[in-house]
Amino acid sequence: MATATKSTTGTGARTTGRSRGAAKKAAPAIAEFDKDQELHAYKEMLLIRRFEEKAGQLYGMGYIGGFCHLYIGQEAVVVGMQMAKKDGDQMITAYRDHGHMLAMDLDPKGVMAELTGRRGGLSKGKGGSMHMFSKEKHFYGGHGIVGAQVSLGTGIGFANKYRENGNVCMTFFGDGAANQGQIYESFNMAALWKLPVIYVIENNRYGMGTSVERASSTTDLSQRGVSFGIPGEQVDGMDVRAVMAASENALEYCRAGKGPFILEMITYRYRGHSMSDPAKYRSKDEVQKMRTEHDPIEQVRARLLDANWATEDELKAIDKDVRARVAEAAEFAQTDPEPDPSELYTDILL
Amino acid sequence: MPIDILMPALSPTMEEGKLAKWLKAEGDTVSAGDVIAEIETDKATMEVEAVDEGVLGKILVAEGTDAVKVNEKIAVLLGEGEDASALDAAASAPAPAADNGPAPVPAQPVASAPHPQAPAIDTPADPEVPEGTQMKSSTVREALRDAMAEEMRRDGDVFIMGEEVAEYQGAYKITQGLLDEFGPKRVIDTPITEHGFAGLGVGAAMTGLKPIVEFMTFNFAMQAIDQIINSAAKTLYMSGGQMGAPIVFRGPNGAAARVGAQHSQDYASWYAHVPGLKVVQPYSAADAKGLLKAAIRDPNPVVFLENEILYGHSFEIPDMEDFVLPIGKAKIERAGTDVTLVSWGIGMTYTMKAADELAGMGISAEVINLRTIRPLDIDTVLASVRKTGRIVTIEEAFPMCSVSAEIAYQVQEQAFDYLDAPVLRVTGKDVPMPYAANLEKLALPSVPEVIDAVKAVTYTA
C-alpha cells in the first residue's frame, strides 16, 4: 500500500486532487462493455434523464412542491454502480435520489406520483421527493439531513456483517456532505469493525452554491479515509464503464471482509442544486463544456454508433420508448388522487 | 494527633459501600499513596490510598462489612511518635468536622406517629402482576440488566452497543455480565462517537435488527438527537409504513449528584414532543424490568430514560419468568381521595415521601406513577382527578414546556368542571443545574415543596 499511484480519470472529467497517501489505489481499467451492456446503460441513463426533465417541467407547472433536486448529468454514477451490484446489495443516499430509485428498478409511476404527493406514490405521498424507500428493492432512502444517511448506511453494513449475508451497502453522499462530522465517525467504526460499506462520494463540484475548493481544505475526497486506513480512489463518474469497473473492484474488496472502500465519483450536475437555485456561482460555459464534452449518455450513444451496435433509428426508437414510459408516469402522477385524509394519522407507530 | 481515615465517596452518587478488604494490618507503617483497602461500590471495586503517612493504629470497620456510610470513620492513623494511647485521647476529643466531605445526607423523613384521623395507606396491587406472584428484591440496576439478558436470550436480533458496555461492564454497570454471556458480536463497545453510533444503530434497525443503544448519559445524546428524531422517529411515516426502526435508546437521564449543568438535565419533554417515538421513564425496579423488556420488543423507536440515582435503589419485583409491562399505561402506586399526585421517574421519590407525610397530616393522596410519557396515559390521570378534584404534578425537569405543562393542559381541557383548585406543579427550577451542594438542592424539587403545593390545592393551612 506504500506506493503512490496516479488514479485513472478516464475521458476527461476533472480530478481535483493529487495522488498521495497510503490508501491511494489506482482505479481499475475501464470495463469493456459488450453490446448488451452498452444498450442497457444507455436505456437506464436515458430513463433517468428524461424522468428528471419531466420532473422539472411538472415542478414548473406547480404539480411538484417543496424541494426537488434533479440528477441530470450524474446518471452514469448510479447506473454503473447498479450494473456492478448483485441482488441484496443495498443503496442509501441523500435527497438527490430519483436516479437511485429508477436505477434500483422502482416503478417510475410510483416515484413520480410521490413527487406530486399522490396516494400511488412510493411513500403514499407522505415522503415527497427526498423521502422514498423500498425494502423489496433494498433501497433505504431518501434522506434530507446532509450526511445523516452515511451513519445509517454504515448501520446497514453493520447489519450485513451481523447476519453474515455477504451483502454490501452502497452509501452515497456529496462533496458537500463530505465535511460533516458524522461521516468520519462512521468511517472510523466501519474501518474498525470491517463493515461492508462502499462510501460513494458523488463529487459534482458544488455543495449547493459553494465549490469544493471553497469548502474543503483538501479536495481529493477519495483520500478522506486515509487516517482510518480506508482505501479510496477517484473515478471518472461521467463514464459508466469506469464507474462499473471501480464498483466491481470495491464490491469484491468489501465482500472479502476487508472493510469499507471509498469511491469518489467525479461528476457534474447540469441543473441547479434544487429547482429554486439559479446557479449563478458558475458560468454557463462551464456547464456547456461538460454537456458537450463529457455527457455520460452521449458517450455511450457515440460508442453504440461507432461500433455499429445500433443505428440512429434504433436509438430514436429507444428514446421514444423511454419518453412513453415517462409520459405514462407523469400522467399517473397528475391524475392519481391525493392521499385520503385518514392517512394523516397512519404510519406513525406500528 | 491521630488522623481519622473516613469512608470515601467514590462516585457522584455513592452514599455507602462495602469495605471489601484491608490490605494493611494494625501496626503496619503506611506511606501516602499506599493502597490500604478495597471498597466495593455498586458500580465497581475501588482501591483506597492513604493520603497521610503514619502507622495504622486501629481498624474500626472490619473487612467484609456492608453498607458503610460515606464519611464514617473506618480506621485511625498514628502520627510520628504517637502510640495506641493517643487513640483514647482522640476518642474523647470531639469528632472532626468533615470539612471536605459531601453535604450530610438528608435525614429520613420523620415517621410521624399516625394521626388519629390518618387515612389508612392503600397500596393497590399492580394489575399487571398475577395474584399470588412471589416477590423478590432487586435494584433498578439488576432489573435493567436482567431485562436485557432475557430479551437477548429470546431473540438473536437484539444486541447492545455503546461506550464501555462490554469489557468495562458498563459505565454504571448496567451491562454487567452481558459480554460474558453473549460475546462481542452482540455486546459492542463503541468509540466515543454518539452521533455516529446512534445513526449506525438506526440503520441496522431499518434492516430489522433490534439494537439497544446505550448512551452513557442522555446528556451526550444531544450529539445524536438528529438521528433519534429525524431518522428513527420519522422513517416509518416518510416511507408510507414500509420501514421503521425497532430500536431502544437508553441510559441515565436527569440530574445525578454534583455533576453540574451539562450533566444534569431531564430530556423527557424533548423526546415526548416528537410523533413516532415512545418515551418511557421508569421509577421502580419492576417498572425498569417490565418496561425495558416491552421496549425491546416494541417495533417502534423507544427512548428509555433511566436515572443514575435510582440505579442503586432496591424494590420488590415480581419473581416471574417473563414479566413485561405495557408501554403507555400508568400505575396507581397509592390510592387516595383528597388529591392526585402525578409523577414519573425519580420524581416519584419525592412524591412517595410527601404522600407518607401527608397521610400523617390527614390528607389522603392518590399517587400515579406515569411509567410512560409518550403515549401519555391521561385517562388514568383524568379518572383520578374526577375523583379528587385536585392535582399536583412532580418532576425534576425545567418547568417551561414540560411534561407537567402538557398534563395541566389536558386536565383543564377534559376535567375542567371537576377541578376545585388550579393545577399546580413542582418542578426543577428554571436555572442551569448549579454545582454547589446547597444550590443544587435548591434547584431540585423537594418534599416540602410537594407538601406546600398539596396544601395550596386543598386549601389546608
Automatic annotation (TrEMBL), chain A:
EC number assigned by the record: 1.2.4.1
GO molecular function annotations of the record: pyruvate dehydrogenase (acetyl-transferring) activity
Enzyme class: oxidoreductase
Cofactor(s) recorded in Swiss-Prot or TrEMBL: thiamine diphosphate
Renumbered residue ranges of the record's region Disordered: 1-27
Keywords associated with the record: Oxidoreductase, Pyruvate, Thiamine pyrophosphate
Matching InterPro entries: DH_E1, PDH_E1_Alpha_Subunit, Pyrv_DH_E1_asu_subgrp-y, THDP-binding
Pfam annotation, one family: E1_dh
Domain Dehydrogenase E1 component: 44-341
Subunit structure: Heterodimer of an alpha and a beta chain.
Protein name: Pyruvate dehydrogenase E1 component subunit alpha
Protein species of origin: Roseibium aquae
Automatic annotation (TrEMBL), chain B:
Sequence ranges assigned to domain Lipoyl-binding in this UniProt record: 2-78
Region of interest (Disordered), residue spans: 89-137
Requisite cofactors: (R)-lipoate; thiamine diphosphate
Subunit and interaction comment: Heterodimer of an alpha and a beta chain.
Molecular functions (GO terms): metal ion binding; pyruvate dehydrogenase (acetyl-transferring) activity
Protein name stated in the entry: Pyruvate dehydrogenase E1 component subunit beta
Keywords recorded for this protein, A-Z: Lipoyl, Metal-binding, Oxidoreductase, Potassium, Pyruvate, Thiamine pyrophosphate, Transit peptide
GO annotation terms (biological process): pyruvate decarboxylation to acetyl-CoA
Function: The pyruvate dehydrogenase complex catalyzes the overall conversion of pyruvate to acetyl-CoA and CO2. The pyruvate dehydrogenase complex catalyzes the overall conversion of pyruvate to acetyl-CoA and CO(2). It contains multiple copies of three enzymatic components: pyruvate dehydrogenase (E1), dihydrolipoamide acetyltransferase (E2) and lipoamide dehydrogenase (E3).
Reactions that this protein is recorded to catalyse: N(6)-[(R)-lipoyl]-L-lysyl-[protein] + pyruvate + H(+) = N(6)-[(R)-S(8)-acetyldihydrolipoyl]-L-lysyl-[protein] + CO2
Entry EC no(s): 1.2.4.1
Organism: Roseibium aquae
First-tier enzyme category under EC: oxidoreductase
Pfam families noted in UniProt: Biotin_lipoyl (PF00364), Transket_pyr (PF02779), Transketolase_C (PF02780)
Organism domain of life: Bacteria
Regions of compositional bias (Low complexity) in chain numbering: 89-120
InterPro entries: 2-oxoA_DH_lipoyl-BS, Biotin_lipoyl, PDHB_mito-type, Single_hybrid_motif, THDP-binding, Transketo_C/PFOR_II, Transketolase-like_Pyr-bd, Transketolase_C
